[in-house]
Each structure stands twice: as structure tokens, then as C-alpha cells.
Amino acid sequence: MDILSEIVANKRKEVEASKELYPVKLLEKSMYFDGKPVSLKKYLQREDKSGIIAEIKRKSPSKGMINAHVSVERTSIGYMQAGASGLSVLTDKDYFGGSPEDLKVARSFNFCPILRKDFMIDEYQVIEAKSLGADVILLIAAVLDKKEIEKLGKLAQGLGMEVLLEVHNEEELERSITDKVDLIGVNNRNLKTFETDVKTSMDLVEKIPADFVKVSESGLADPEIIKELKKEGFEGFLMGETFMKNGRPEKAAKEFIKQLEIE
Ligand SMILES: O=C(O)c1ccccc1NCC(=O)[C@H](O)[C@H](O)COP(=O)(O)O
């Protein structure tokens, strides 16, 4: 079984357990449930922002432990002060060392778009994302068919959230495009081999219809590459490890964003 199939199989069990522990009726009582989400699309298009979606991720299947002792409060606030356009918070525990609590902490300290970064396969998780205060959910084309993307996307949009669809190649892009998503992310990481190549973004960009905000994801570590991706039409840049491998991720983000020379 490849890692993605393993993560998804594990996620199915986890979601069933969560449904028992925290039924939807309870999630709907959250103080965030009726709140208006913050638009990532709008933040990515602000000229005073960097376009960086800065991620909080303690570990990953490709890199193992990256930063076990990160302070979500300090890092999330620091990322936004450094000029990030939004936050991405891993809520998967077993493979990424995150938790729903991490997202709640980031939400309570920041007014900015927050992406719930997880493996979404069930409507329950979309409702849970809203109850945690998320503004955006991720849908991964490699694990969902078009009907599932439309069902989960429609529910998220109905709750006021935006949807980031992640693709890795032309086949995934072609079979998944729908108006039930708002942003399209090109994952530079091959989730089977873990190899990252920014050429993946460069090659796919012209195939993405103009009405979607374009995000380049993973393996980004050089400000010059961000400048090139911007020229190609990308407005968002999802970055995790480059910042998280530093003891103070927010300081690494500040240094990096400074080099983008935002006016
Ligand atoms: O990062 C992994 O090893 C990974 C493995 C399997 C599925 C997803 C994985 N990563 C999730 C992500 O999409 C990244 O955290 C995100 O794009 C940031 O990437 P990076 O800047 O390379 O940390």
C-alpha cells in the first residue's frame, strides 16, 4: 500500500471515531459555526502581502520529525507579522503530528485566512473544519473522484468556506475541475515518490482556467523561484518545511519574505 492510501485508510477509521465522540450536533454549537470566514482568495490578491501561505507542520512522511516543539501561538502570529497572506495548519495527528486543537489555537490568535490541511474524505470533516474556525479546506484530487470533490466542495462553500483543490498532473486537473472549488493548487511533491520539482507548477499553470486562483505547493525554498512563479501567474505559495525546520519558523519566514521585496 502506498503512503497516501495508508493515510486515507487510517483517516477513515479516525473520522468514524470522531463522529462518535463529537457528533455533528455538538460541532454546530461551536462559536465559529455561524461566523463569516476570511477569504484566502482576497488575501492572496492583496498587493501588500507576499502570497505565502505559511504552514505549521511538526513532521511529515517524507521528512520525519521537523519541529516537535513548535509553539502554534507564537509561530502563527509571527508568520502573519512577517507578511504571510494566510496560514495552513496540519490537523492530522498520526502522520503530521498536528491536531484540531492546533487550528483552534491559530484561529484564536489571528484574523487571517486559515487552511485546514488534512485528508478530507467525509462531509463530517468539512463541518468539523468550520467548527474549528477554518476558512479554507483542502481537497486532494489523488484521493477523491469528481463526485466526491463536488459534494465536499459544495458543502464547504455552503458553509461560507473556500476550497483549495490540489492536483499533481494534467490528468488529475482535467478530471477534477468544477465550480465547487475556488483555488487550484499544484503540488510539486509527487506523493508516491516524495520527489519535489517546481517544474510541475511551471508545466501545469497554463492548463488551469483563468477564473481560479493558482497556488504552487511544496518544495519551495528560494525567493527567486517565488518571483518566477508569480510571473507565470501563481498568486499563492504554500510553504512548510523551509520555515518549520528552523527553531523559530516565524523568523525564517520573515527573512524569506523580506527577500521578495514586497512594496
Ligand atoms: O510532506 C509530505 O511528506 C507529505 C506526504 C504525503 C502527503 C502529503 C504531504 N505533505 C503535505 C503538503 O502538502 C505539504 O505539507 C505542503 O505542501 C508544504 O510542503 P513543504 O513546503 O515542502 O513542506
TrEMBL record:
A GO BP entry: L-tryptophan biosynthetic process
Keyword Transferase on entry: no
A Pfam family assignment: IGPS
E.C. no: 4.1.1.48
Domain spans labelled Indole-3-glycerol phosphate synthase: 4-255
Keywords tagged on the record: Amino-acid biosynthesis, Aromatic amino acid biosynthesis, Decarboxylase, Lyase, Tryptophan biosynthesis
Molecular functions per Gene Ontology: indole-3-glycerol-phosphate synthase activity; phosphoribosylanthranilate isomerase activity
Pathway involvement of the protein, from the record: Amino-acid biosynthesis; L-tryptophan biosynthesis; L-tryptophan from chorismate: step 4/5
Catalytic activity: 1-(2-carboxyphenylamino)-1-deoxy-D-ribulose 5-phosphate + H(+) = (1S,2R)-1-C-(indol-3-yl)glycerol 3-phosphate + CO2 + H2O
CDD domains, alphabetized: IGPS
Name listed for the protein in its UniProt record: Indole-3-glycerol phosphate synthase
Lineage: Bacteria, Pseudomonadati, Bacteroidota, Cytophagia, Cytophagales
Gene (UniProt): trpC
